[in-house]
Amino acid sequence: MNPEPTPQPAPAATLQSFVSYFAGITTFSAKPAVLQVVDGRIQLVEVDPTTRQATRTVFDVLPAQIAKIRGSASTMTLRIDGQRYVLDFSPSAVALMPAGLVGAAIAIHQSKTSGIGDWAVALRGLGVDIRITSIGRIMGITFIAIFGILAAIILVAVIYGKLSGN
After folding, report:
1. Which range is least confidently modeled, 82-91, 124-133, 137-146?
2. How far apart (Å, rounded) are the C-alpha atoms in residues 98 and 11?
3. Residue 134 CB contacts under 8 Å (≥ 6 apart), including other chains
4. Residue 45 in contact with residue 33, Cβ under 8 Å?
């Protein structure tokens, strides 16, 4: 008599985040999804927006299959087998950036708490080539560029004033 095999529970995800997955080019193509690591594999699964039940596996790959990951703020772009996958960990964070200093402060906080940092650490640990630029760094570069342009304009105005005799 052969005993029936005991059904094994599905492996638990060691890291899991709800994200918006952009299936097309525009923000209108965003679909709710879950990015997770299960048994050392990285999976992106689309989910039903109301029930959060899985509807389709977008990809299920080993870390070595990911060519590179780049990102900024709360958005991550993965390259897998020549395909580009764009994920947003906190869609409202990027939308708040143009809303002045208060919006920028909220955006920075939302980016830090979105989970993208945890993913960057985990994926680096799995050997994936990943670079994420923070909102603070983006803002710093922007302010330096703006002040550089303003300084150049003032310098040109001063030099032009001296040359024209005013």
Report:
1. 137-146
2. 42
3. 72, 73, 108, 111
4. yes
